[in-house]
Structures are given as structure tokens and as C-alpha cells.
Amino acid sequence: MGSYMKAMKPQVAGKGRIQVKQGYYFPVNPTKYIGPVDRIVYRSSLEREFMIECDTNPQIIRWQSEPDFLNIKYINPFKKRMATYYPDFFIQFNSKKKGMLQLVVEIKASNMITIPKGGVDKMANFVKRAFVLNQAKKAAAEKVCASKGMIYLMMTDKSDFFK
Predict the structure, then answer these.
(1) What confidence tens digit (pLDDT) does each residue in 133-155 have?
(2) Residue ranges covered by each domain of the chain
(3) CATH number of 4-162
(4) Which one of 33, 45, 64, 94 is separated from 24 by 20 to 30 angstroms, measured CA to CA?
């Protein structure tokens, strides 16, 4: 398959630690998708919503979930060693103002990437760890994307797109 992430099947919600909706997405416009259309996995309802937008928005020319060509190296702040990060999406977007853009998009729940009003002390330990890890991934992804002429976006359930 080429990518570790592509080999991972969706997990069933409610079993074990998985609390999010996961499954396979079958595109309406399969020619827009980069890669095998029978292996498109969403790992949250937000990812599924974004897939529908990528698939049906005429400004999005091509798209891919968990793009295998973007394996971003970063230092895991907890393990203190090099790790690989696979962003959620790559899209080629035809902007009316800026022309063709290449975007790399990560979808996260807002509590995983923002500090609450009460500060870090108000965060649960697993959320603190997720926050720190996501910041390390974001910093590495921004550098890689900038070097390739791509734009990196981290979107959350609070982003305008999901409203």
C-alpha cells in the first residue's frame, strides 16, 4: 500500500478507547481523488465532513486523505526521538484570487490544539500531551510545506468551514 496510515482500517466507535465515528468514504467524484478510491478512511465525523466538501466543491480540483507522499519528520517531545507525521489531507484548490493552491490540512478537535481560558492547568493530562504533540507536528509541517510551496492549515470544529 505504500503508507502505514493507509493500511490502518477504521475502528468501531464505542469499543475500547475509540469514541469517534470512523469508516470508509466512497467519493461521488472518484476522478478527483488521488489514489485508490476504495481505501479512503475517515477517522472522525469532522474528517468525513471535510471529505464531502473536497469531493463536491468544484474549486477543489484534486484531493487525498492521509497523503503518503507527505511523511513529515518531527521530534516527538515525549519520546525525544524522530517520528513521522502524516497529515489528514492534501488538496489542490483553485482560488479565484490566488490561482491554484496546494493545501495540507489537519483536522483536530479544538480542545486538542488550543489552551483553555483557565490555562494549561485546566487541561486534562491526555489533552496536555495531545496539545504539545500537535504543536510539534504543526511546527514541522509548516516548515516542510513552506519549502514545497504549500500552505499548511490546522482546522478544528470551531473553524468557519464547519459552521
Answers:
(1) 999 999 999 999 999 999 999 99
(2) 4-162
(3) 3.40.1350
(4) 94
